Amino acid sequence: EQLSRRFLTVIANIEFFLNHSLSSICRRLGDNGLKFSEQVFKHTKDKLVIYRSSILTHYIKNKSTQIHSIIEYANYQHLPDDDDVSEFVKELMLCTVFVQSEMASFCSKFIQQVLGDLVKVALEHLFNVLARVDFSSSNHSTQVIVDLTAFEEAFQGFVTTDMSNALKSIRARLMNRLDNGIFKNALLNFRSRMALTLDSLHQCQTNLNDNNEDGGGGTSVGGDNNNNLT
């Protein structure tokens, strides 16, 4: 986790320099006779934004490795002892909440982008795992439907339309082997046992939406509000 924090520290430092220092430095250079201070400002800003994007990509790759290791447990050879979602779904949720918490004190404006990328990585890897699952068993089919439903509910704020359609397509193919009793009990247990984690994920999305509506905290790595020396 030290590496992750180093990445976030660098991003936070770049953010501070872009938003509070760069324009002031270039303005003073211009006031003291430096020619082309506007060009210096723009060139420096562009370079820093590119570097920030690169560091954020490294951070996402680092977290994606953890996501991959969690999904590897989704082999469906050992189903839950009682009606519940699979452990890997819970681990994904906890991992995502940790990332959310870790980023909050460093660079909260990129949380939505990072979590969105991690959810995409998780789903793509999960689809690869599901391709190897034997769906002839009603228990396996029911468990997959439970897990996919819980996944979409937990990460609803980060699941795109294409992801949602893919999840619905898989569930639709398995519905004829669904044990509805197990399905309902499993989701009830999931919502009860993971209530705090669900609340955290949903509150995160609500806060991000509120920030975006207020015009702050954009999710684009390449963008920045400080665009000139004035």
Summary tags:
elongated; 230 residues; single chain
Description:
The protein has 230 residues and is an all-alpha fold. The chain is built from eight helices and no strands. The chain has helices at 2-31, 37-71, 87-104, 111-130, 138-154, 161-174, 180-193, 195-213. It is elongated. Residues 216-222 have low confidence and may be disordered.
Portion in beta strands:
under 5%
Q: In angstroms, what separates the terminal alpha carbons?
A: 39 Å
Helical stretch count? Answer: 8
Shape: elongated
Radius of gyration: 22 Å
Mean model confidence by pLDDT: 88
Number of strands: 0
Q: What share of the residues lie within helices?
A: over 70%
The residue ranges in which pLDDT falls below 50 over 5 or more consecutive positions are 216-222
Order of helices and strands: HHHHHHHH
Query: Quaternary status of these chains?
Result: single chain
| Sheet having the most strands | none
Quickly give the structural class.
mainly alpha
